[in-house]
């Protein structure tokens, strides 16, 4: 993957200390995050820390609060209480486009592409969030607008190439296979040049070979300098890919740690994984 496109944070797993010996801040730190919908507590005092360079999994049964967590972090919802810090700076109350500019991008469980636009045009939309030329300049076709359009097209093509689908650039997104649509969506998110990429069930609906390819793709994205936080129900996928896993159940964090530790946690076994996942790891 072209390192000039998406990365703005350090690559590799873990954060470590800076060159001056000072411990780096977590990329994302969530403290006591709570969200109520009327009398329902969708999240209740959740803590979660994502270090720069990690691939971090967020798992739990249906209704555990995982997508609500993503919606709070990305500004689609406002928390009832709690803190959301990006590199030590609060992003609570920011609108989604402001969160994107701060360095967080996401995909959705249900793919949200402009189905009538080409793959290339969809990815260019992500880059447009970083362009300086306004709508009026685009209408008037000013020199800056034309230059940015050309640069955006080239950058979008590089991302499609990194996703392995450059040959599909001019195909209408709605005609692409499910797996290729997911790759276009990830490329579009990377076009915003995020520090942190949130992936909501990236392998949903995929066959085993597509899931294997997605594993390699996510590792490539991380190695290019983008930290990953993902929601996923496929335990074999999660356990083989993620370095740290946080588990939610009924809106409460019940476990967090390395995959093998989480996999054998009695609360996790009871709530989500089932006894077979402990007796036969990765099956």
Overall SS class: alpha/beta
Which segments are poorly predicted (pLDDT under 50) over 5 or more consecutive residues? Answer: 6-13, 275-283
| Rough outline | globular
Helix content: 25-40%
Strand content: 15-25%
CATH T-level topology of the largest domain? Rossmann fold
Computed over alpha carbons, the radius of gyration is 19 Å
Describe this structure in words.
This protein has two domains: 9-103 and 194-278, P-loop containing nucleotide triphosphate hydrolases (Rossmann fold); 114-192, no CATH class. The chain is built from eleven helices and ten strands. It is globular. The protein has 283 residues and is α/β, with parallel strands linked by helices. Strand 7 (196-200), helix 7 and strand 8 (227-231) form a beta-alpha-beta unit. The strands form two sheets. The protein has a six-stranded mixed sheet with strand order 6-7-8-3-9-10, with helices on both faces. A four-stranded antiparallel sheet has the order 2-1-4-5, with helices on one face. 37% of the residues lie in helices and 21% in strands.
Write the layout of secondary structure elements.
Elements: E1 28-37, E2 40-50, E3 55-59, H1 66-73, E4 81-86, E5 89-90, H2 96-102, E6 104-106, H3 119-128, H4 135-140, H5 143-162, H6 178-190, E7 196-200, H7 208-223, E8 227-231, H8 235-241, E9 244-249, E10 252-257, H9 259-263, H10 266-273, H11 275-279
Helix pairs in contact: 3-5, 3-6, 5-6
């Amino acid at each position: 993957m072209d390192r000039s496109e998406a990365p703005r944070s350090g690559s590799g797993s873990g954060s470590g200390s800076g060159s001056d010996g000072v411990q780096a801040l977590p990329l994302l730190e969530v403290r006591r995050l709570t969200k109520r919908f009327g009398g329902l507590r969708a999240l209740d005092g959740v803590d979660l820390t994502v270090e720069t360079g990690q691939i971090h999994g967020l798992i739990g049964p249906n209704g555990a609060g995982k997508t609500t967590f993503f919606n709070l972090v990305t500004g689609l919802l406002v928390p009832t209480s709690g803190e959301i810090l990006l590199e030590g700076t609060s992003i609570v109350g920011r609108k989604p486009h402001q969160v994107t500019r701060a360095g967080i991008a996401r995909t959705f469980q249900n793919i949200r592409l402009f189905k009538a636009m080409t793959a290339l045009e969809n990815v260019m939309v992500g880059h447009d969030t970083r362009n300086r030329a306004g709508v009026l300049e685009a209408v008037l076709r000013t020199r800056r607008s034309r230059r940015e359009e050309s640069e955006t097209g080239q950058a979008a093509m590089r991302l499609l190439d990194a996703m392995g689908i450059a040959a599909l650039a001019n195909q209408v997104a709605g005609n692409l296979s499910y797996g290729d649509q997911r790759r276009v969506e990830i490329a579009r998110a990377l076009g915003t040049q995020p520090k942190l990429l949130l992936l909501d069930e990236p392998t949903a609906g995929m066959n085993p070979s597509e899931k294997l390819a997605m594993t390699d793709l996510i590792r490539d994205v991380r190695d290019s300098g983008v930290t990953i936080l993902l929601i996923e129900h496929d335990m074999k996928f999660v356990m083989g890919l993620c370095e740290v896993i946080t588990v939610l159940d009924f809106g409460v964090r019940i476990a967090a740690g390395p995959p093998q530790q989480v996999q054998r946690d009695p609360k996790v076994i009871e709530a989500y994984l089932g006894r077979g996942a402990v007796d036969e790891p990765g099956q």
